[in-house]
């Protein structure tokens, strides 16, 4: 795989981060959890462009999933992954909200 994931930070604050991400052909995201030092992490992923083949998102448990385009989940609790992108690229607008315990 020669192309790299390109991430543009659109907003970064203590509780909310917004990213525009391009995943290239050949890329995959291995199963993982997103670690947080405190609070509860929520992610809302908006798939702006699906690849022509591959690049399917999978999560142990979603809070909301509308046609695999709008997905709300707890990445700190539930393992998630994206299968290998076979053809094309995957564009994602991702909102990460950390709800503090206090």
Please provide the ordered H/E string of secondary-structure elements. Answer: EEEEEEEEEEE
- Shape field: globular
CATH architecture designation: Sandwich
- Give the helix/strand class: mainly beta
Q: Report on the biggest sheet.
A: 6 strands, antiparallel
Distance between the termini: 43 Å
Report the radius of gyration as a whole number of Å.
14 Å
Instruction: Catalogue the unreliable spans.
Output: none
- Which fold name is given in CATH as the topology? Jelly Rolls
Mean pLDDT: 94
Task: Give the strand tally.
Answer: 11
Total individual domains: 1
Output the CATH homologous superfamily: Jelly Rolls
Question: How much helicity do the residues have?
Answer: under 10%
Strand content: over 45%
Any idea of the CATH class?
Mainly Beta
Output the number of helix runs: 0
Strand order of the largest sheet: 1-2-11-4-8-7
């Amino acid at each position: 795989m020669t192309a790299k994931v390109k991430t543009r930070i659109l907003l970064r604050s203590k509780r909310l981060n917004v990213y525009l991400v391009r995943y290239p052909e050949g890329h995959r995201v291995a199963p993982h959890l997103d670690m947080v030092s405190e609070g509860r992490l929520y992610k809302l992923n908006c798939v702006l462009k699906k690849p022509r083949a591959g690049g399917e998102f999978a999560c142990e448990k979603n809070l909301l999933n509308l046609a695999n385009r709008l997905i709300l989940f707890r990445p700190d609790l539930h393992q998630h992954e994206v299968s290998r992108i076979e053809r094309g690229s995957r564009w994602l607008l991702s909102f990460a909200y950390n709800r503090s315990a206090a």
